[in-house]
Design a protein that fits this description.
The chain is mainly beta. Strands 2-1-3-4-5 form a five-stranded mixed beta sheet, with no helix packed on it. The termini are far apart.
Length: 91
């Protein structure tokens, strides 16, 4: 048995070579975006609930280039039958 609920927070950063997780500063200098990550699992038999919120975007970075990077690398956390993922953007 585990203690419920389970909760985790952090940050994912999109770099030219893919996603990296780094939860504290200094963040990677070559990052193109930063996404805040929260994961909650209210009970052992419940689905994980993951929320990703874009909190930073490299100034001047064209949206079409970011879209291409997301197409190439996907998102940092993928939905599964045991995990719901919600994407939001602050910037």
């Amino acid at each position: 048995m585990t203690d419920d609920p389970r909760f985790e927070r952090g940050f994912y950063h999109l770099l030219p070579d893919g996603w990296r997780r780094r939860d504290s500063e200094p963040f990677p200098p070559l990052r193109l975006e930063t996404w805040a990550y929260e994961r909650e699992q209210p009970a052992e038999d419940a689905k994980e609930r993951v929320t990703l919120v874009r909190t930073w975007k490299k100034p001047g970075m064209p949206s079409d280039k970011l879209d291409a990077m997301h197409s190439w690398f996907g998102e940092p956390v993928h939905p599964t039958v045991c995990r719901n993922v919600t994407l939001e953007c602050e910037v």
